[in-house]
Write the structure tokens for this entry.
Amino acid sequence: MTVNEYWSLWEESGVELQPVKRKKPKTTRTAKPETVPSSVKTLEGVQKWLGSCTRCGLCRERNEIVFGSGNPKARLMFVGEGPGADEDKQGLPFVGRAGQLLNKIIEAMGLTREEVYIANIVKCRPPSNRVPEPDEISQCLPFLKAQIDLVSPEVVVALGLTAARALTETDHNMANLRGQFQTIAWKKELTLMPTYHPAYLLRNPSAKKIVWEDMKLVKDRLGL
Ligand code: SF4
């Protein structure tokens, strides 16, 4: 386990840690995050706008950009932190062990993976699965914002603390965020449920019960 994975594990569990200085990666750009061009009106358009993106330093070590996948008109959207090794190889979100667990959660909710939409806060794998840096998140977020606008789900589930913090634009810990509906910072009308990341559940199976409590609230909200 890397230092950053260890850090995330403790943060996910709700334990407050003293801030430490993390090493800043070099980025390819320091430009302001882009806004959606008016010509972008479909998910394919977002993908075209993204192109072979080099807007942040995560482009250097990625194999594939993991754009997102699923039903373009999904009622439920899941947003994770970023691609892992399997996702980076295949170019698809949540296809590794954590993805298999997410599939089980989706099925337990009475849905199929094809019925939901799945994306991440950053679309390229951070080296050694470290937590994405704020500048990497801000460069990548406009594309996720466009995806959320176009899919227009009724509920978004934030998987893990990084996604929950990026979508709420807060630095609360998971214990404060989960268990009740929140709203997306820039889209207050959209319901958000933060919960633990499936990768956290693989390391802490006892938290599955807590996630299921959150998913039951989502199920009720969607009338499933
Ligand atoms: S993480 Fe996002 S902004 Fe950074 S290079 Fe990949 S696609 Fe571009």
Q: What stands out?
A: Confidence is low (pLDDT under 50) at residues 18-27. The chain is about 40% helix and 10% strand. The first helix runs from residue 3 to 12.
